[in-house]
Amino acid sequence: MEEIQSLMQGFAIALSPKNVLLMFAGVILGVIIGVLPGLGGANGVAILLPLTFSMAQSPGGTTSAIILLSCIYWGALFGGAITSILFNIPGEPWSVATTFDGYPLAQKGRAGEALTAAFTSSFIGALVAVIMITFLSPVIARFALEFGPPEFFAVYLLTFCAFVGMSKEPPFKTIAAMMLGFALAAVGTDPVTGTLRLTFGQTHLLSGFDFLVAVIGLFGIGEILLTLEEGLEFRGTKAKMNMRVVLDTWKELPRYWLTSIRSSAVGCFMGIVPGGATPASFMSYGVARRFSKDGDRFGTGMVEGVVAPETAAHAAGTSALLPMLTLGVPGSPTAAVLLGGLLIWGLQPGPLLFVEQKDFVWGLIASMYLGNIAGLIVVLTCVPLFAAILRIPFAVVAPVIMVICAIGAYTVHNSIFDVWMMIVFGVIGYVFKKLNYPLAPLVLAIVLGDRAEASFRQAMLVSQGEMSIFFSTPLVGGLTGLALFLLLWPVVSAGLARMKRA
Amino acid sequence: MNTKLVKCVRVAIGVVALAVAGMAQAWEPTKTVEFIVPAGTGGGADQMARIVQSIVAKHNLMKQSMVVVNKGGGAGAEGFLDLKGAKGDPHKIIITLSNLFTTPLATGVPFNWRDLTPVQMMALDQFVLWVNAETPYKTSKDFINAAKARSGDQLKRFKMAGTGSKQEDQIITVAIEQQTGIKFTYIPFKGGGDVAVQLVGKHADSTVNNPIEAVAQWRAGKLRPLCVFDPKRIPYKAKVTDTMAWSDIPTCKEQGLDVDYLMLRGIFMASGVSPDQVQYYIDLLKKVRETPEWKDFMEKGAFNQTALAGKEYADWVAKEEARHVMLMKAAGFIASGK
Q: Is B32 inside a domain boundary?
């Protein structure tokens, strides 16, 4: 029980008045950053990093600095869900999957419920991940070392298959949408040969299509176009706006305990590997839809469809800090910036950090518990406020959303070209919805396409082109096998059902 | 913080400020200075830029503020093209890594360092040949011999993991290949941290990581440095592990592997800026390099502290460019049509 003792010391450090103040400041800043699409957690932390530099010079200052920065990160994780649910605009990539059921809920006038469910399950996901970090970090750090290129590809394959195999849309439409996503993901620099491809000599295409720009356009602008067509009306106006909704939702949530456990497991796994919060949320949503009794009604506004991706995203976001601390490998873009921060402050993330910087590590872990509690308090008290936004007439809100989307798209690379791209994506999103093509596989392919490609081609370099590498060890073979099973499951289960009837 | 020191620094800054004010109408930034990083967040260039930014802010070295902007698209081409297009703009500076040379050569994107104005070399980044500590190779000779034995069979070749493609890590790998006649399978990864962990997890046989990317694993006894690709040994004598300091790592050259490579961490401005604008940044960066924070950062990352400015710097860059053209031509990395 050495961990508990260290943790208590950590609490003592994290609970100093100064650190508690920093915690709340960080969380509030993070929520704002999370709400604004485009200004992601990574940008937010990077902007504030220089501020912490002089902070880190005083004794115990590095702990304060990491508390501030990591709390911005928690805040951004919480905040990403808000615009997803209210306006169908994901503030952060990992909250795309939250829109699938969160937004329909808001349209039914149940925004308060959806927000409460999202925040609460985020908190639970984070809590599970922190408990795991507290007690299992050495074991887990070793597990992460098992992952080479073929294993990474198998994980990405698993994400695609978990999502596609569960899709309700016609398979060919799903595949068409996904292929378009892969094509868009391929624009820019080839990860293995280093040459440019599909840029057509355009400077603007050098960095490829940014996922955030695509998402802001496809979801945000596309949704506004649809609403315009349907007569300038917001369907969320009946939203309840008192604190009771929080308590009422809490009474309902324990029903989804199994989904929570499953999603936390998916999230922790993806965070450690490190696959990241975005694939974790997609995978978890896909799995929940498959195994839930109400799986068929997912996408129409199920609370469970909010719980699953939010739990997983937060569990992954939190556990992504573990490979960063113990191995020096960032599990997410934000973790990458935090890692840079640690190095600047003069700390060396790596196997010895837990031994040499006990106060720092345990202060950070304690602040993970406390920061998430602070975050939950902040966002829950604001639920009625957020829900009230939906009462504002559409004629006022729509232009504001347009402006926020445009700023968001601009912020990603400080480029006006991205704003035009956002509008193009908005039209694509509108056309997709009109023709009943699913947007999710498109988005999933844009966000994971290049990473999956890089891992696949690295694996092919290792094996000199032999596909058998994906079955070469029990770990990679198991992951690949599971992926194929999930992909083919609809066919298999349909076949089984037919055999039973016969 | 030591108040005496703060006072000293303040006085020093005051003196410098007076001296600067005394010069006839020395140029000063009139708005926020954009510090462009032609790479993503979290990497070596990004870290250095943010250190400079925070030192400038902390010691009040500049009246205007400085913001770091990442423009890493197209292996950094995005950032370089931005600066190329900002002719005569004195409020933009860029920090370069080797992609200043490699990106235009490998991708054919139209820019060259001559489209920019060299300001100041901040430091040179080292490269070290690393293997997993559980392997039996104690010297680069052991390693080269083992690699040679497996070089003939495509499937069994040693795997070299590195950052990026057709960039510094792969160039060093090819230089070793040319020097020894061995073949490696080079596997590109996105960041230096990933590369180090791939080696710890035995998914690769060796890397040429920068010191700061691998030092944590070295200290934990997971990795072993074989030699450094600098003609001279790293000067830092403080013990890093229980038994070794950076200065204890032999150079590759003394072990018979005649390959040397150092990576530029230097500052450039757009073309068409005036000499006193360049001088302003040279003076500013000189003050940055004199702070204890900077010295500390140099030692942590085991940097080579060569810092050239003016013509010497431009000459160094020109020589380095010629070397990159030669190395990349020999490796077949030059984009077609170039």
A: yes
